Structure formats: structure tokens, C-alpha cells
Amino acid sequence: MLLLLPLLPALGLAAPQLGTSPWGPEVAATMLRFGCHQLVIDRIDPLVNPGSLPSPHLHQIVGGNAFDTSMPYNVDISSLANCTTCSYSEDLSNYWTANLYFRARNGSYKRVPQIPNRLPLFGDDITTKTEGGFVVYYVSGGIGDVTAFKPGFRMLVGDAGRRESLGLRNQTCFRCYTGPDFEGDNLAPCYDDAVDTEELPGKMCWGIRSNILFPTCWDGKNLDSPDHKSHVAYPVTGPHTFTALGTGGQCPESHPVRIPQLMLEIIWDTSLFNDPDEWPEDASQPFALSTGDTTGYGQHGDYVFGWKGDSLQRAMDGVCFGAKCHVLHTQSLEEGKRCSVPSRVGEEVDGWRDVLPGNPDVWKKK
């Protein structure tokens, strides 16, 4: 699968002016790409485990401060939040994924810190300076190409309980950075057999990048479904993502409405754990997602829509690139940092631990 829009700097193309396309006047594509600070790290999940305190495993959360143990269905989340950790101040949505932990040879665990993306795009320096958190992408093929999500919309990609390959590298993938300058990163996610894997890398890396790509087709009726997946679908033919020319794959008849390509991009600094004496004696990979998953096949991402008014539709039709868009409002790095919510569970998630938060039954210390 290809996502050619993020390759633009690597191709040596000049940064576009706001409201213009770098591909020429015949192509009016949009790619929002913006950083979000950490909102909170907590063991709650209002989508899969609403009302549970705590939920089974730990999540990293970014976005608006309406995030809580439960988030009411069929309600405009943007009306409940008054700040966001994301650089676009009109995006009060929430995005969350699993955390990553390192298990030392003595059986103890430590959370792997998230670090900013090193690549600025079209003058964006917020993405390279966020604290914790990750990068969010929204892509469309141009004016009228997609229908923005509606208030109350939510979805999930991946399965936290999966422990074997289903050949779904086009939905989630990992990439091993081989040096401090992000060597091994040619930007486009999940398509390169040489560098992208569905499972966690089995070797020492300077950092590990995780990409999560959401479906791009909607049934046009339901804002959610019991499994949080059935109301959306991936294309049945062609690429699963939009290309530079806006030619996403064909949607199935059951899900005919094309929606923006949403992608999350997380970078973990695993260089802190590259002491061979701390790795297992058999040199097997020592990282686990906070679900207790040592394979990486259970990587997943959750989304609750919360853009204000028609701001996302305007952006998708606005021929915008990166973290600056002429039809959206941005906030400063400091304003985003001030937005937070308190931990509801209140457990210690950092420092060396005997077990993972929630004690998932995989790598219990002997």
C-alpha cells in the first residue's frame, strides 16, 4: 500500500503555499499532519470498556479534555471539551493507543518514552517539539472527495487481543530506526517489505515507529457499531490509503461513503534500552505493548470525533498541508501543553515495575 503525500519532502518538492497544491493545479489534495501533546496516560477506555475504572490495560491519550471513563454516544464531543493538546485548536477529538514497555533480563518493566517526530513539514515545528503524544494525519483527495465524520462518530482499528499475524500490515505496522537521525525512515508507512513489519522488530533499534491506519469507507448511517468497526470498512480494490493524486481504493457497496484517511504515528525511544546485558539471554525481543502483547499484532487505535462545527470538512476541502491550514486555527506549543486531565486510576505507570499495569497474563515476573 502507498501513502505518497508524506513523501513530498523526500521527493525534493517545495513547500506549498496555503491553499495551493504541490502537485499542480489539477490536483487539490489535502494532508493535515500535526502533533498532539500527551493528555494523560491512564487505564481507562471509554470506547471498549465504558464506565470501567480501571480498564484492563493502559493507554496513551491525546486530544480534547472531555476524555473520561465514559464519553456519551450521539453527543457532540466538541461541546464538552474546552481545550486540546493538538496543534489545531478546533480538533477536540480523542485518539488513544497502547503504550510500550521494556522487560529487563531480571523480569522488571519500564515504560518506553514517546518522542517527537523529527521531521518538520511546511514550516511546522510543533510536531517536532511535542511532549509525549504522537502525530495525527487526515488525508483527502481534494475538494468534495471525502465526507467528514459527524458528531458522535467513533471507531476502532486493530484488536488488542490478537497474537498472530493476519497479514494486516496495511492497517498497523512497525518500523525500526537504525540511528538517531531516524535512519530507515523514508516517510511513507506500512508498505516497504524491507523496513515495515506487522510484528514488533526483533532487533535493537534507536527508536520504533508505529503507524495505525483507519478505514476510509463508511456505511453513511451509523456513527458507531457494537464492535466499533462494522460501520466502517477498508476499500475492496486499489490502495487502502489515498495517494498523491487522491485515488483511494474503491469502497464496497455496503460502505459507499468515502471518509478522510485517519492515521496515527507514534515514535518510541528504544535507544534507552539497548544494553545487551539487559536483553534476554537468547536475544529475543524484550518489548511488550501494555496489553501484555509481545508480538505487536495486537496494536490498535481508538478514535472519538470532536472537531468543532464544519472545521474538518473545510480542511479536507481546503487543500491544506501539514500543521498550517488557512481555514483552521492553530494554537501555540505552550497552549497545547496546558491542556490535560487528571489520571482517574492514579496508578504509577513509570519507573521500574514488577508487573505491567493491570498485570496482563503474559510476562509475569517469576
From TrEMBL:
It comes from Cercophora samala. Residues 45-307 form the DUF1996 domain. This is DUF1996 domain-containing protein.
